[in-house]
Amino acid sequence: MRNSAGLPQYTYDLHGLCVTAAVREVRVLIAEANARRRTGVKAPCSYCFVTGSGQYGNDSRIKAVLKNYCTGSGLRYEDVDGATIKIIARPYR
């Protein structure tokens, strides 16, 4: 997944993705960051995902599913605003 133009670094726009594709993209980013950290390569500690506010269908479901994914995976998350979620990648221990 590439960062959308005009968004801050490590911020990704999930608009237009189905729920399954959005979760897959998030899982890949988190897994890649954790793999880099395990090998000693610097990687981001958190990512922000713009999910939308839920006015157009899938947007609100994506955010809810991402929260469930984080809870089930032991990841912390923060609601940045009504349309964005910040996921803190699990630090390498």
From TrEMBL:
The Smr domain, residue ranges: 9-89
Lineage: superkingdom: Eukaryota
InterPro entries recorded: Smr_dom, Smr_dom_sf
SMART domains: SMR
Identification of the protein by name: Smr domain-containing protein
Upper classification of the organism: Eukaryota, Choanoflagellata, Craspedida, Salpingoecidae, Salpingoeca
